[in-house]
Structures are given as structure tokens and as C-alpha cells.
Amino acid sequence: MLEAKAHQQLKALLRQEGETRWPHHLTLSRLVARSLRRSDQTLVRLAPGSDPSWLLGLLVPLALHNSPVALVVSPALRQRLLTVELPRLQAVGLNLPCWEGATAPEAAPLWLLQHDALVAAWQSGHLEGRQLVVPEGELLQPLLRQALEVVIDTGHWEQLRRSLPAAASSLLQLHERLSRRVLARPCGPQQRVPITPEDEAPLRQLLGVLAPLPEPWPNWLKTAGADWTSWASVNPTLLQWTLHRQPLDPCAVMPGLLSGRGVVVVGPWPQPASPGLGFTPQVEVSLADPPLLDPMPLFAPQGQALPNAPHYPSHLLDQCRRLVLGQAGLTVVLLDDEGLRLGLTSALAAEFGSRVGHELTAPEANGVICCSWSWWLEHQQRLPLPCQLVAATLPISSLEDPLTAARVAALRLEGRDWFRELLLPEALGRLQRSIAGLRRNGGRLAVLDGRLKRRGWGRQVLEALEPWVALTRLLPNP
Fold this sequence. Notes:
7-stranded parallel sheet
């Protein structure tokens, strides 16, 4: 059977390399091989920040499997796969032919797809008969949402008017009306303004009777309905804006993507359910890392200011100053509010000099990086392990983001608990992935968000950080 062959090959490979940094290689290999052989749907939960060598347990069964499979990867994972993992397999005589491109022959056993190519293959019907393997399950929804996004900028409006000269005057009036509405609304720190279906309705009615339309307008017309939301990214300096339209749930607008076929999804999904996963797995297994011998030091004193308090910026600066003093290693301060983050960076740089920087990719040994949570999640693998992380605010998505607000509104219409079903689980996932390297390095975590101790859901955050030990006093590290 495939499970036995994969087990033997992987065991021989691990024995040859002489290093096993992840304890569940053989278990993962058997699970993936079983799912491929039976064409069933399997969800494998990993501990956040698991050592990336776990990919071996996924790739060995794929190298021995003959039926057509589509492997869905992000650009970063594709790079690691081609430059690190495939050479490791070839060194022991295992070949994994990867077909890339808009289409793949039916005989090609493995079709390597990034998420935009996955959307194109699904739309063209080329995925029929192929099982799906998704090794970054936590990124499936956001990257599919980006791949499905329709973006319309000023050049697309000009092209539309040139293509339809008879309607140029009407199109110009509609664009001017939309521009006045967009530019008159407050755009918040992210420079984004929501666009309602009522705002778009006149344009949809006009384009619905015109043909043919240049791209991307036909795609924009197809994305009608409550499953999609629109917003404008605004450049207030140039008084220009770009229209964006994305689905609230990409799996819902791609029916059949994860149903009626074998699917293997691997990722740090929360228990007991996986919000937004888009399929009901027949097999669910959790592969956690071994328990830590030493709990993570956590500095989160009582009585901290709330992020919306007027004195919060000064409180944040005072606490960051105390945390940075005497540190010989890297400090990372995580804060999504860009205005507050830039102000904090300037204030810390005035005190600690050039060792402080904003979203630096080449910090000093005792440097201080102030960055957003998304930037840290994207770049942490290429940066030195920090000695401490400072969570200025918890990574809870803001309702000022139009996409988040639209997803929350959809849950409200159904009478569901949008905070505990959507915002909190996503925030806990980001938090756990962000501190994974800190645990390996034995560093400490500081949470300066007063909601941790003042809100009832703060207990869930503390449980997600287990194991930890409270730091009641700050002592400089040697």
C-alpha cells in the first residue's frame, strides 16, 4: 500500500539526513498517503510555527502517488519547495515531477498551482478529476480572496469610455458621482472607503445593456450579489481612487472547489471547528509539538490603558522604553495603527538612536523593529529570532477595514456572534503564529493592550498563549 511505501521511504530519508527536528514526520506521511489512496477529505492541524521540515512528510507520499494531484502553494512555499525540498528528495532517488502553467496534461501526476492559477484552473474546468493538497490551509481563504479580487483603476475607466464612445458622457457622469461620494467620506488610517451596492447600482444598470466590455469590466459585472463587497483605496493627495471588489467567503463563490474530490488541508487551524475552511473533512487529526520544558515569560500587568484611551500613546511609549532598556537582543514591537506606530518609532529612535527602525529587514543585533502584525508574519522567517515581542495591541482586525466590516455585517444578519466566531479566532491564529519563533528562542512576550485583562475574552487569549509564566517585574536581560 501507499502508506507502507511512504513510511519506508521517509524513514530511510530521515535516517540518511540524521536529523529529525519535527516529531510527526511518519504520522503525517501515513495520513497523507491514506487520504491520497482513498480520495477522501482530510484536515491535519499543526501547531502554529511548526518547523517547516514537516513538508517532507507531505511530499514523500506525493512522489510515490500516481493519480493526478494539484498542490496549492503560496509564492514563498513554492520557492522553498523548488530550492530546498525537491533537492532533498532527489538526493535519495525520489523524483517529484512538478507541472506548472495555465493547464496540465491529464497524465501529469502533480500540478503545482499558486492561488491565482488555482482560480483560473477552477474557472476553466481543468481541475476535474484532480485531488487537492493544500499545505498552507490557514492562507487558503485570504489568498483565494486576493486571487478573485477585481481591481478597477483610472486607466480602466478611460479604456471603457474609449471603447464605448456613445456612452462616454454617461460614464463620465457616473464616475464623477462616485468620485464625489468616495472623496467626501472619511477614509480612516488605511485610506479605504466602503462602496455600497446602492453606489454601484447605476453603473451596473448601464453596463448591463452595453457590450462588448473591455477587461476587467465583465468580471466586475459577474461579481454581483451579497457574497461580494466593494471599497475604494483613496489617494487623498492626488484625489484619485481605485475600486476593489472581493468575495466575503471565496469558497462560497467557487462551488465545487473543495467538494466532490479528495482534499488534504494542512495548517494551524483552531479547535473544534475551522472557520471559513469551506469543506467538512472526514478525517481530522491534530499534530502538536512536544510540550515545552520552560513556559514563556509573559509581561501583562494589571491596569493597563485601553487602546482607545487618550493617554494610551504615552503609556505605550513608557512601557516600550522600559522593555527595550538593557536588552542585548532584537526587540519587535507589533502595532497595526500606522499613525501611532510611526509616532512610536520616532519617539523610540529619539531615545535609542539608529538601532530603532520601522519595518527593517536588516536590524542591528540589539535593534528595535516597529512593524504591523501582517509585516511580521510575512518577514519573520528571514529575520533573526527576537529576544522579546511587544504586542502593543492585539491583532484584532479593525471594523474600519471595509472588508472586515462587510464580513461582520454578514454574520450580524444571521444573528451570529461575529466577534467570537470571526475576529477573535483570526486574531488568536495570528498571535500564535507570530510568537512561535519566540518560544523556540526562549524570549519573552509583553502585551500592552489593556483589553487582555479587562475583557471577558481575554481569558481565551491567555489560554492560547499557554504555557506561560507571569513577569511581575521587568529586569534587564544580561
